[in-house]
Amino acid sequence: MRLQNKINIRFLMVTLLVFTVAGVILYFTLGNVIDHNIRGILKSRKTNVILYLQHNKTDSILFGSPDRTIFIRQIAKIVDQSIVSDTMAYDVREMELIPFRKMVFTTTVANVCYEVTILQSLLESEDLQVIIFYFMTILFILIILALFFLNRWLSNKAWKPFFKSSALLKSWKIGENKQVHFDVTGISEFDQLNKTLEEMIEKMQADFINLREFTENASHEIQTPLAIIKSKVEMLLNDQTLSSKQHLQLHEVFETAIRLSRMNEALLLLSKIENKQFAEKSDISFNSLIESRLAYLEELIDLKKIKLSIDLSVPFIVSIHPMLADILLSNLLSNALRHNCSHGKIIITSGNNEIFFSNTGDPLTIDPLKIFKRFVKQSTSEASNGLGLAIAEEICKLNALSLDYTYQNHLHCFVLSKKFKN
Predict the structure, then answer these.
(1) Which residues face 403 on adjacent strands?
(2) Cα 2 to Cα 162: distance, rounded to the nearest angstrom
(3) How many CB atoms lie within 10 A of CB 312?
(4) What pTM was computed for the model?
(5) SS3 for 64?
(6) Over the stretch 254-268, which tens digit does the pLDDT of each residue have?
(7) How far apart are CA 264 and CA 106, in angstroms?
(8) Model confidence over 318-346: pLDDT tens digits?
(9) Which residues neighbour 92 within 8 Å (Cβ) at sequence distance 6 or greater?
(10) How far apart are CA 233 and CA 284, in angstroms?
(11) Termini Cα distance of the chain
(12) 112: enclosing H helix or E strand
């Protein structure tokens, strides 16, 4: 979840909680105010009734008001009490039972005892409470929505420099030797972050260039003495005065130098691929390239008496550097040939955006998940340095390709396919 959305959700929850608590407090406060007001009205009407009784003779007193909210009756004995309660009574105007607040009290006027019942309608008060409740609810909702969208708009505006810097970082590539500058945002935290990023990118570019130069120089410096060693050893191998044991030892030294040279070249190639030094791309037909590479391996295939089955009827075209395409297919074909068995078979078929490379061979004795790791190899063959599939996978990563491995029906199967962005 984005930080902006997380902040907005928490802001909305806190605001909703505050408004809910405030609404409940307001509702009950309003109820208490209305209740207090009704009690005041009842007390005022009580005073008026007592004054009415005091200023009128007994025979002229009306024992019921026209609106049927005051009832007076004579009683034999006075009871000093005043009872206030809620009740339901029929209202002539509303023509239905409505809630009333009832006050019953006794009083003595001119030695005559009276019991007075006063009814005060609660309908208007309840209607007022309901109206105020709905009004406040709608007002609270409108305020919450207004604050939410206002906060969202302000957050978008405040975070805009951050997203701009993030987009610039995504488009930046370490292999591109260009300066990266972030705009001044006017927000101290973002400006400090952008300054730190500029310094970090500058150092990363310098370290990258130094590492690339070191790798290339080290590889070149290693290749030179290796070439001299191979040359000298090759001359010694032609010396007829050496014994067979010395020839065998020199031959081992020569083979070791060749393997070391190949490993150095493979590691240098891996470094160049990881550093994205093969930027130029063109559309390459893997179908044609596979056929041309198989022509070079024809003698080795015949020598191991391997049956070759090819079906490249479906075109497989990839935008890739020509050299990387050649290395990728060479490694996959060499792997299928090297780890095959005598009188085995190699099956190459093209499908919808994928090519299958299958070959016979013994099951793996290593974890299949580690087959693309560096220096991990199935056989103990000195011809293999354990870097071929690692190089193939790095080439695939660089060119939006996927390379997967399975073993089924006694066949090692590598599937080369295109990745598609969602």
Answers:
(1) 416
(2) 13
(3) 16
(4) 0.50
(5) strand
(6) 888 887 877 777 777
(7) 115
(8) 899 888 899 899 889 988 888 888 888 99
(9) 67, 68
(10) 41
(11) 20
(12) strand 112-121
Q: How confident is the model at residue 1 (pLDDT cuts 50, 70, 90)?
A: low
Using CA atoms, how far apart are residues 156 and 231, in angstroms rounded to an integer?
68
Number of CB atoms found within 10 A of residue 292's CB: 10
Q: Where are the domains of the chain?
A: 3-143, 188-274, 282-418
Q: What's the topology of domain 282-418?
A: Heat Shock Protein 90 (3.30.565)
Q: What is the mean pLDDT of residues 293-311?
A: 88
**Residue 189 one-letter amino acid:** E
Shortest CA distance to 144 belongs to which of 3, 248, 9?
Answer: 9
In CATH terms, the fold of domain 188-274 is: Methane Monooxygenase Hydroxylase; Chain G, domain 1 (1.20.58)
* Tokens linked to 198: 């500029």
Task: Return the pLDDT at 72.
Answer: 84
State both tokens at 232.
């000298």
Phi and psi, residue 10, nearest 5°: -65, -40
Give CA 69 to chain center in angstroms.
69
Contact at 8 Å (CB) between 320 and 281?
yes
Judge contact between 371 and 328, C-beta under 8 A: no
Whole-number pLDDT of residue 414: 93
